[in-house]
Design brief:
By secondary structure, this protein is α/β, with parallel strands linked by helices. Helices cover about 35% and strands about 25% of the residues. It has a single domain, classed as 3-Layer(aba) Sandwich (Rossmann fold). The two termini are about 30 Å apart.
């Protein structure tokens, strides 16, 4: 569904991503792993169009994604949950969710009921400002906002970061439900190994901007964890 080939990216004179190849198969949950600062978020920024490519290509459902404007990518059915959530703190929960509606292909103007079914707390707090929610509730709101567009591919950047354990468990259940029951394709950046093993099918590991390992999650060895993931 999503393919990255020969991707290189620079910050000024610093070469941040080196000849990256990555494939996300339709219907699978793929996890991009690695320590802080190895290029995971940079990779997602390239996929979403927030950063330009120096070379290489990104294709989504056989369309040249890298040549499209950032706002076009959501309309293709790509939902994105950025690191740090980036909700609008002065808008209500309902208003935050409504922001994604114009990108829906059917042009619906109503928040889908299943968003509130997945995250009942958002329905309870729909008239409260986003900034009044806890960190875990804000993360649920950020995921709900991405799902409003009815995505075929959901990209999440460290959705468990700074979240209390009970909400982490809920988010894991939601990702599993979307992926396994609905068939939504998921690309996940995550460092919590137990979470990855719970929700993901395949993994890629980055180190210093290079892909150093890939495979099925059940093949993720202790030696790889120790060398590239353990802080």
């Amino acid at each position: 569904m999503l393919s990255v080939h020969g991707l290189n990216q620079f910050y000024g004179q610093s070469h941040t991503l080196w000849d990256i190849d990555l494939d996300v198969a339709k219907g699978e949950c793929t996890c991009l792993m690695g320590r802080n600062g190895v290029g995971k978020t940079t990779m997602l920024d390239c996929i979403m169009g927030a950063l330009p490519l120096a070379s290489g290509e990104i294709r989504y459902q056989d369309k040249a994604l890298h040549s499209m404007a950032m706002e076009q990518r959501a309309k293709l059915g790509i939902g994105y949950v950025p690191q740090g959530r980036q909700i609008f703190s002065l808008l209500t929960v309902e208003e935050n969710l409504q922001i994604g509606l114009p990108a829906r292909p059917d042009r619906a103007r109503k928040i889908p009921d299943f968003i509130y079914e997945l995250f009942p707390v958002l329905k309870e707090m729909r008239h409260r400002r986003g900034g009044d929610l806890s960190g875990g509730q804000q993360q649920q709101l950020a995921i709900g906002r991405a799902l409003v567009i009815d995505p075929k591919l959901l990209i999440l950047d460290e959705p468990t970061e700074g979240i209390q354990p009970n909400i982490v468990a809920e988010i894991g259940e939601v990702i599993g439900r979307l992926n396994q029951e609905i068939g939504m394709t998921v690309l996940l950046v995550e460092q919590k190994l137990h979470f990855v093993k719970k929700v993901a099918d395949r993994f890629y590991i980055l180190d210093r901007g290079r892909k150093v390992a890939q495979g099925k999650v059940d093949e993720l060895s202790d030696s790889l964890v120790k060398e590239y993931l353990t802080v």
